[in-house]
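Blackboard transcription, Thursday session:
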Amino acid sequence: MPERIGFIGIGRMGQPMAANLVRKGFDVTTIAHRRPEPAQALEALGARIAPSLASLVADCSVVIACLPSSTEVETAVLGPGGMLEAGRPGSVFIDMGTSRPASTRMLAERLRERDIAMLDAPITGGTRGAREGTLTIYVGGAPDDLARVRPVLEAMGQTIVHMGGSGTGHVIKLLNNALSLSSMALLAELLPLGVRAGLEPQRMIEGLAAGTGATNQIPGRGSRILKREFEAAFQIVLAHKDLRLAQELAQEHNLPTPVAAGAYLSFTLARGLGLEGEDTVALVKVFERIAGVEVKSP
Amino acid sequence: MPERIGFIGIGRMGQPMAANLVRKGFDVTTIAHRRPEPAQALEALGARIAPSLASLVADCSVVIACLPSSTEVETAVLGPGGMLEAGRPGSVFIDMGTSRPASTRMLAERLRERDIAMLDAPITGGTRGAREGTLTIYVGGAPDDLARVRPVLEAMGQTIVHMGGSGTGHVIKLLNNALSLSSMALLAELLPLGVRAGLEPQRMIEGLAAGTGATNQIPGRGSRILKREFEAAFQIVLAHKDLRLAQELAQEHNLPTPVAAGAYLSFTLARGLGLEGEDTVALVKVFERIAGVEVKSP
Amino acid sequence: MPERIGFIGIGRMGQPMAANLVRKGFDVTTIAHRRPEPAQALEALGARIAPSLASLVADCSVVIACLPSSTEVETAVLGPGGMLEAGRPGSVFIDMGTSRPASTRMLAERLRERDIAMLDAPITGGTRGAREGTLTIYVGGAPDDLARVRPVLEAMGQTIVHMGGSGTGHVIKLLNNALSLSSMALLAELLPLGVRAGLEPQRMIEGLAAGTGATNQIPGRGSRILKREFEAAFQIVLAHKDLRLAQELAQEHNLPTPVAAGAYLSFTLARGLGLEGEDTVALVKVFERIAGVEVKSP
Amino acid sequence: MPERIGFIGIGRMGQPMAANLVRKGFDVTTIAHRRPEPAQALEALGARIAPSLASLVADCSVVIACLPSSTEVETAVLGPGGMLEAGRPGSVFIDMGTSRPASTRMLAERLRERDIAMLDAPITGGTRGAREGTLTIYVGGAPDDLARVRPVLEAMGQTIVHMGGSGTGHVIKLLNNALSLSSMALLAELLPLGVRAGLEPQRMIEGLAAGTGATNQIPGRGSRILKREFEAAFQIVLAHKDLRLAQELAQEHNLPTPVAAGAYLSFTLARGLGLEGEDTVALVKVFERIAGVEVKSP
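(Written on the board underneath:)
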């Protein structure tokens, strides 16, 4: 009997991911949130719309959540009509958002009482990866549960990496984002410094792209900054939240993170100075303002 | 008339670079420093050995310095028998080390008085790049002077990037190293955190290499850490010096660098805790010790 | 009818505070924890010992908790036999520890349902202040509730400062400790620097005590360092916890704290490098080790 | 034969200090700088005005400099008509500004060649201390030289603290300012946090003044912030410079300073965000802006 997929959280990332599931022939049920349009678009592709969370979780053998934070996931699991109260024994709950590992482990334990498996399966690759089905998916949880839902995950992502037990998917996601966002924060502080110290912006980006300090993202981010393309693919307010989760993880283990702490500070400044709704590359504006220069193409 | 090349500073990087010049047919003169062996090895390949700095600079039309810091470069230019006192008018002085941009501009100005051109041409690519002639060379100075010595530089490096006026080569080098070393510092603090939070080391490195936070160096550095390969290719004490120069550059311009400052702190700790002679990847040991775990292959 | 005081948490601070209450004629009931001696000593002074938490809270009109963290307070309030389950309607619960303000507000709200008032009344002044009854007590909660228990608090402290509504006592306590511990962290990093830069330790302390940077604690802390008196009055592991709470408060409000974050990092290092059980003044050892000097009397 | 005092640098601090010397009967010669008024005011009290630096240093047995930074002091000593060229053998040069210790030691050594003694004698106590002659003066240099000029220093300051050899006065001054300014930076970041977390500003200051975290300056600085008194007694741009010198001292010795580095960052932000001309207490505005609150009296 084929799996019946429930999909909760059809925002900027979740909607195209659910669409890929429908297009690849999965039986998908979703639920409308604030605005009706995203659910209607999925319905047009062939998805069902459930009248309530309780009915969605009661009807589905695999429930996927793509929600903003642990708070919303905890509500979907522990709240009224949620997975714990109304979910099906024998089903699998998959949290594809960026949650707190300690919360993930707690939820997995609670769901186990009702014979519901839980996987954490956070994603990386941005809205483009979500649309094109090329996401990297980090998975924490039992190997058997992953084997069972692997075809479902492969409909949404290209690379599935099993990290270990419950919560390890969320841990690696936080490390990945700390790496990626700290690199962004470094660029944001160094580029205006380079301009103040006499470098021509375009050549500076080319020079960095040719050096040992280059990252996967330097030419891309650098060229967006040069062209002043700051519309949000990944908002500063969300990046700030991810870095805060990484700080909390380090605090939980009483470990120092001098570099990631610096990046967290920079995003906190950006958020406090009114850039919260812009893309992470707009972090450079904080440092441009202090330096009194702009990093842009001639 | 072909250029006559003088090469000062034949250490871990300079020696293989000079050897490449000799092998590619350039007329190279060098000078022995502490130990006679590096100069003798070059002599065996066909280089000359000058009896003194004064005679080297007096005889050569292109003088290349590959020295540890601005202090040594200033001595080679301003000191007794140095470039300013004994160099040939019409010659070119090339500083291929990682120097302070303000010192570089000062030296270029002083040399101009005696009709000697100066280029800053720092390198990136490590000892392997030096041996194989695949370095990236960042150049600051006048386009005509670069055109004149370009064949010389191409004998040592694969990519020559002209950044702008005097000192800009050294500026981009500091930015590149700040990027590269801050990435190293991030890895050093995040990997032990990942292990403490339950990740298996090998899978953690694979996971990060598959994510958006990956850099040019993640699989390489990660695998060296997993195999505990800490012999020095780039010593912590030198990396620390480069990060200090980047901090000084930011201080000179009154700009904040929260992330690079965190990396500078980490390298300062490593240096103070006895790791100064090990490779930069050994920075992880500081955080392993605090975390009470090791990031190594099973 | 006089108040009947229940006192939970008779450790290094709580025991002498409870003793002061007994000596000043209050009717005090306590409960033994791990070791029987502290409770027996209070019994010898005239206190009662309750057989269980439930019986203590059921019998007392004012219950004082002097516990290590919010976790223990939450257990005492929400756990089996705790204040919520077994406490007397009309009674007052006073948390004199250093707790998380958000937890405090949550507990106050829960207790209100059962007509139990809650005050947060954290203390500052150390074990000496506890013994001598000279503590400063910061109070958060309703003015009427404070008025009712003021005589009780005055038996333990000299200065009672009402800060505002529920949780505000804990907020000011976190700010106070962030100030005090960051000052300690500053001393710890600056004194070894001064010695390395050529200052004689004793004169350095005298010089700082005479300057504008002096704090309430400079001659005291400085002289303990000079005499190498590191036995714990306030352990590094507890100071580290307080600074973490201050960091969490800032994170909750998305605010940057560059200085307190630096102090938190230093205490994290000290904790990770094996100094967790020593007094906060022992933080200097981290920096002495890096500097290769000792700050001590000739 | 009484000393003849030359006084260079009659700005906000130097002018009232020189005036105290004149009033107490010393024979004082000064020199006009940008504006004629400060020198004219001293002349009206009884000072002479020298036509040039060279004539001032040639005529005086004690030359006092109260200049903004090492750059100006180096010019006064090493520049044309300066102390080295035109000063009197057997005279004493006193640098009362906040200079780089390494520069101080270098200048002392150079002057010794010409049999001129040098003392570093930086001051703390603000413009009010300068007017009222109640400054604390930290002295580095030989005891005999200090003994000789002690009466001169006592005319300007109340407390004279001999720290050790040349440069030690400047070292302790940097430590003192790092302590004082980092305390200011802490207040600046914590007060808006307290307000956001629910504290009433006035009571918050009173609470902190009663606690263990209080400093010499908390009630004073706190009350200036509450009353929004930000006119400059000690400008942010100068405070920023002093913290940079402390950072440079730590860098010179390869030592970490996590707390002072945080304070340096905060002042760098303040300077870059347009507050450079305001008093150090205005640093709070950076954090108020991010927090969206003001710390002011009701």
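Lecturer's comment: Residues 168-196 of chain A form the longest helix (29 residues).
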